[in-house]
Please model this.
Amino acid sequence: MTDFNRRENLLHIQERIAKTAERSGRNYDEITLLAVSKYFPVEVIDEVYGFGMRYFGESRAQEIRDKAPVLPKDISWHFIGPLQTNKIKYVVPNADLIHAVDSLKLAQAIDNYAKRNKIKPKILIEINTSAEEAKHGFGVEEAIEKTLEISEMGNLDVQGVMTMAPHTDDKNKIRQSFSSLKNIQEQLQNHKAGLFKILSMGMSGDFEIAIEEGSTLVRVGTGIFGLRRRQ
Model:
C-alpha cells in the first residue's frame, strides 16, 4: 500500500464519521478516531502520524512498550488488547487509556501497581454485550455492579465502558449490542453524574452503526492501514 492510499483511507474514514455524526444529530468533535496500529512497524505509524493522526491503539504489551519511546511524544497510545497481570508494567507507563479491563482481578492488579507508583491510570471496563463465550468482559447483568465497584478503587480513573460487536452480519444484532452498552452507560451516569463519558464501540466494519448508537470512540485498523500481517 502506498503513502497516498493510507492518506486517502484516513480521509475517507474521517468523512464517513462526519457524515454519520451529522445524520445522527451529533458533532464530529464528539467522536475520537483511534487508528489500530497493532502489528504495523513504527515507520508506518509515523507515516500515518504525518497525516495528522494522534491516537493509536496497540494490543500487545511488548509492542506498546517498544513503540511508544521511539515515536513522537504527542501520540496518545491506547492499549486495546487483553492484558495479563504480569504485563501491566509494560502497558501502564505507556498507555493513556487501557480499554479492556475485563475482570476484578485485573482491575485490582492495575490498582495495586498504580498505588505503588503513585499514578492513576485511565481505564475502560469491558462489557460482553453479545454474551458470546469467546469474548472477554463482564456480562450485562453484572456490568453496573462491577463497574461501580472498580470505580471505587482509589488508584484507577474509570473513564467509561467498551464492547465489541458480535461476530455476525446481522446489523440488528450489532445495533442491539451497541444499544445495550449505551443503556449501561446511562445507568452508570445515573449513579455518578458526569462520569463514564467514554463509550467505546465500533470497528472498521460497524463503526457507523456504533456512532448512530452513541459511540464516542471508534477503533479502525484495516480501514486505515490495510491488511496487516500478524507477527
The chain has a mean pLDDT of 95. The two ends are 18 Å apart (CA to CA). The first strand starts at residue 32 and ends at 36. DSSP finds nine helices and nine strands in the chain.
